[in-house]
Amino acid sequence: MKILVTGGCGFIGCNFVKLIMGKYKDYNIVVVDCLTYAGSLKNIEIFQKNSHFKFIKANICDKHTMDNIFNNEKFDYVVNFAAETSVDKSFLNPNLFFESNVLGTLNLLDLSRKYNIKRFHQISTDEVYGDLKKEKKISFKEKDSLNPTNPYSYSKACADNYVLMYSKIYDLDCTISRCSNNYGPHQFVEKLVPLVISRAKNNYKIPLYGKGKNERDWIFVYDHCTAIEKILFNGKKGNIYNISSGVIKTNIDVVTNILKIMKKPNTLISSVKGRLVNDSKYALNTHKIRHDLGWKPMVDYKTGIKETIDFYLSK
Fold first, then answer.
1. pLDDT at 169
2. What is the pLDDT of residue 275?
3. Among 2, 174, 155, CA closest to 80
4. Beta bridge mates, 177
5. Which stretch of DSSP H or E encloses residue 248?
6. What's the rounded mean pLDDT across residues 185-198?
7. In a domain, 111, yes or no
8. What does the H/E/C string look like for 176-223?
9. What confidence tens digit (pLDDT) does each residue in 99-156 have?
């Protein structure tokens, strides 16, 4: 069994590789990553001497190079983590996000169809559903309409639609997962949790949009990866699966909790002007993956955030 993991040098991708390499000793993993600012070879260095692992530096938008890789490697599965994911950066350069997240995905879909891949799995995001007003005591389901509000989520929503189209029209076996906010080891420092930890460690000011009242559903990265594993090997063709822990916290709660654990003062928090558009709340209904695939998160927030803090403080 051979799995292509695009974007495998990034945060969630490298954790997924770690899970699969540890659990399926006879599977072969090929990581393709173009090593932009958020991807690092350090995240996969522990696998480099493993005969079942290979790294190839390439951009999924380079169809000629990717065609050669598909032809040479003979993949069974493709898991596409590769994407530009910074909402803030997407406002500054929407074209980059369209190229990577949409055109790159289209290249992979074409090649998966050409080389008869058994399953193509697309990593998406809860942000494609748009803003869920705080006063609404509901959560998004897989069949809800998409209403993205920034260039990043627009590009991911567009890619999702292409994946579903390839599954329906071209009979390519595809699945999609949409996950809530992740935290854990190897996350790039621009994201909220590692940013708070790294700045608090050095007693630097911690920027926080507005009053930090935006609500997000937080999941430990290991739990996200086990959900992807379930979908990849047991999910139904053409289906979408929401993934979350159900642990909803405001940004200010996340920040003050980390500071409390690190024994740092809340005076480090510095309110800054919010981004152009900042959704107030995301929440996902995960009945489908829990009922159909028997998945559930295993790491509680208290344990996960402590492990995450310890990881960054040890670096």
1. 97
2. 62
3. 174
4. 123, 241
5. strand 247-250
6. 96
7. yes
8. EEEECEEECCCCCCCCHHHHHHHHHHCCCCEEEECCCCCEEEEEEHHH
9. 999 999 999 999 999 999 999 999 999 999 999 876 667 899 999 999 999 999 999 9
* pLDDT value for 229: 98
Residue with tokens 């460690």: 201
* Residue 57 within any structural domain of the chain: yes
Token pair 């152009």: residue: 276
Catalytic center residues: 126-127, 152
Q: Is 234 part of any domain?
A: yes
276 assigned to some structural domain: no
Q: What is the pLDDT of residues 206-262, one digit of tens each?
A: 999 888 999 999 999 999 999 999 999 999 999 999 999 999 999 999 999 999 999
Do 84 and 101 contact (CB within 8 A), yes or no? yes
- Pairing mode of beta strands 206-209, 269-272: parallel
Q: Which amino acid is at 273?
A: K
Buried residues in 243-260 as b, exposed as e (16+ CB within 10 A): bbbebbbbbbebbbbbbe
Total domains in the fold of the chain: 1
Q: What is the DSSP string of 49-77?
A: T-TTEEEEE--TT-HHHHHHHHHHH--SE
We report the CATH number of the domain holding residue 177 as: 3.40.50.720
Q: Are 181 and 304 in contact (CB under 8 A)?
A: no
Range of the structural domain that residue 124 is part of: 2-184+220-245+283-299
